[in-house]
UniProtKB/TrEMBL annotation:
Lineage, uppermost ranks: Bacteria, Bacillati, Bacillota, Clostridia, Lachnospirales
Gene3D superfamilies attached to this UniProt entry: Winged helix-like DNA-binding domain superfamily/Winged helix DNA-binding domain
GO CC, alphabetical: cytosol
Pfam families in UniProt: Rrf2
MF term (GO), any: DNA-binding transcription factor activity
Protein's name according to its UniProt entry: Rrf2 family transcriptional regulator
Amino acid sequence: MKYTKATNYALHTVLYMIEQNQGEKFSVHVLAKQFQVSVTYLSKILTQLVKAGLVESVSGASGGYTLRKSIETISFMDIIQAIEGNGLLFECGIQQEKGCPIQKVMNDAEIIMEKYLQEKKLFELSSIKRNQK
């Protein structure tokens, strides 16, 4: 399985925002420069994170993007779903009289993976968390 580059940038952007001063507003230009990606591309990713309720967009001269959820609660799955959506990773697509037995195995594996990614919080990777130990 392979996630899109957008998911990669979204995970790194949120982790960066967690590690920086909470409550700070980040301009899309600063974030794009941090990850060496175009402002337009990162803006689209941030828009998806805003729609998912993970990030807040503040307008105006002192505006920017800030985390909307508590840093301890943002999971890998929250970010992945914001970018990739909720569709199945595997779809059998082959018509069979009794259904597709392969689909059940793939669905069960996906449930296990999603549960793991929902339990894993980005905060756990942050320097903030490492410094608390």
